[in-house]
Amino acid sequence: MKIQHYLLTPLLVANMAIFSERTFAFDFKFGANEKVLLNDDFDSQGEWQLPTNVKIESGYLIPESDFQTASLNLDDLGIGPLSPTEGAINLYWSAIFPDGAHRERNAYIPALQYAENPVFCWNGKGGDEAVVVIEEDGFSCPTDLRQVEENAELRAWLRPQTRIQKLPTRLYVDPDFTPGVEPEERDPSEFAFLTFNSQPNPVTDYRMRIEQIGEQVEVELSFFNNNDEWESIGDRLVVDSSQWRYVAGQNEDGTYNYGIEESVTFESINILLRKLNSAEATKIDAIALTQEKIFDSKSVPEPTSVFSLLAAGALGIVRWNRQKK
Q1: Would you place residue 145 in the very low, low, confident or very high pLDDT band (cuts 50, 70, 90)?
Q2: 105, 124 in Cβ contact below 8 A?
Q3: Can you give the three-state secondary structure of 271-313, one letter per residue?
Q4: H/E element holding 154?
Q5: Where are the beta strands (DSSP E) in 10-106?
Q6: In whole angstroms, what is the distance from residue 242 CA to residue 239 CA?
Q7: Which of 112, 187, 188, 241 is the most exposed place for a label (fewest CB within 10 A)?
């Protein structure tokens, strides 16, 4: 019996690792096979690159003005660019809409950056009135324009709702900074996007999961429901390898030249924050990043094989003990 006890203990431990309950950390529920790379509750700035009008206060990341982007370079964390070919990637975040949030400017966008674009100058008006100029060496934006750096990203766009106005949630690949151009207005064969129904404002915890399947990447957007489970919001966004486009240049007529990231990797976490001047800002109070382990089925014996090996080992030890006697 003592021999059996020592032999079976590793198997019991393995089963506990596989079937154990998931645990909470900063209000996120991670899977047993997820390696946690980042779990930040904004108790300090850390490695985040914050523009002048974004601050961390009382554990919240909040903007003081419109169109502010907080960035975290994965190289600065010692993680390096992440590839979905090495395991599914999960971006978690928790955000709180202010009381009375119902306008587009209360929206926020968490994103994973996959390519770097040139810097633009923009007049901030959007639509047809926008003036966009790619910055060149030694060039600075005129005083009536502001400099905008918006790199190619995989985005989730969360918008507030009221009884009257329900703005949709979006999940899409965004290749550039194009004022006034909505994702639905792009050619879907070139730029993948999905539009979901508006999510209730009380929902605070979300997850964007990126998984490589064959030559495509599938992205699923989920929220943490009242049953303490991650629930998918809708269909998966399917991105072909040719759709990871980024801005490579701009023509005189304002149209863009695109490059393609043939082997996509994610380099930074970016959060674009918006703020309606007459209302409290949307608050981001936690963010996490994980990558799931890939298990090789050939290296894991079937349960029957494990028991066969244990039984054979136990039988061998018993026979050896009898021979000694």
Answers
A1: confident
A2: no
A3: EEECCCCCCCCCEEEEEEEEEECCCCHHHCCCHHHHHHHHHHH
A4: strand 152-157
A5: 23-25, 28-30, 34-40, 54-57, 60-63, 68-73, 89-96
A6: 8
A7: 187
Helix (H) or strand (E) holding 209: strand 205-213
35, 82 contact by CB (below 8 A): no
> Are the beta carbons of 279 and 262 closer than 8 angstroms?
no
Helix (H) or strand (E) holding 195: strand 193-196
What is the chain's Cα-based Rg?
25
- What digits encode the pLDDT tens for the residues 14-23? 333 333 333 3
In 3-state terms the chain splits into helix, strand, coil percentages (rounded to 5) of 20, 40, 40
125 band by pLDDT with thresholds 50, 70 and 90? low
User: In the numeric block, which tokens belong to residue 184?
Assistant: 């639905």
**H/E stretch holding 258:** strand 256-260
Spatial distance between the Cα atoms of 66 and 106, rounded to a whole number of angstroms: 9
DSSP characters over 121-138: EE-S--GGG---EE--TT
**Token representation of residue 65:** 């003005």
pLDDT band at 212 (very low <50, low <70, confident <90, very high): very high
Average pLDDT, the chain: 80
Tokens standing for residue 200: 């209730």
Tokens standing for residue 254: 């304002």
d(CA 318, CA 310) in angstroms, rounded, equals 12
Please tell me the distance from the alpha carbon of residue 264 to that of residue 305, in angstroms, as a whole number: 39
